[in-house]
Amino acid sequence: MRITKRTNIAIRVLMFCAVNHGRLVTKHEIAQRCNASENHLAQVINQLAQMGVLHTQRGRNGGLELARPAAEIEIGDIFRTMEAPVPLAECFADVDNSCPLVDACRLRVALTEALDVFYARLDQVTLDTLVCGNDALATLLTPQCRPA
Questions:
Q1: Most Cβ neighbours (<10 Å): which of 3, 23, 36, 85?
Q2: How far is CA 90 from CA 94, 96, 108, 114, 128, in A?
Q3: Would you say residue 147 lies in a domain?
């Protein structure tokens, strides 16, 4: 299984916000620290806000922050939502499925069970689990002061 770029960026955004808890962060800051384009970020941030995990504030002093505590944000929920439009295999696609074996293939059942286990494991991981006590991550995602 390969995680989409959109999901990868979503997790980076959430980790950045969690590490920088207590202040509004900007899309520009995240783009610099997380090596992501601001265009991709805008789409992901919008989707995370619609999910209710990010709060966004427009304007000159705007930015974004977590909409709820990191301990309440399950990574499985993020993955499910962000990966939902991407079928795991061709046989999972409603429109583009041209596999002639779909009615007799047992692989689809095995993949479905594996995916359920995958998400069940991610449901046990919260955003807090990823960032709390992770000093290396905090160093990477905390803006550094530049000498004057």
A1: 36
A2: 9, 7, 10, 16, 35
A3: no
Q: What is the pLDDT along the chain (148 residues), one digit of tens a residue?
A: 678 899 999 999 999 999 999 999 999 999 998 889 999 999 999 999 999 999 999 988 889 999 999 999 999 999 999 988 666 665 666 666 677 777 777 887 888 888 889 999 999 999 999 999 999 999 888 876 544 4
29-38 contacts at long range (C-beta below 8 A, 24 or more positions apart): 29/143, 33/140, 33/141, 33/143, 34/9, 34/141, 36/9, 36/12
Number of domains the chain is built from = 1
The answer to whether residue 80 is domain-embedded is yes
125 inside domain? yes
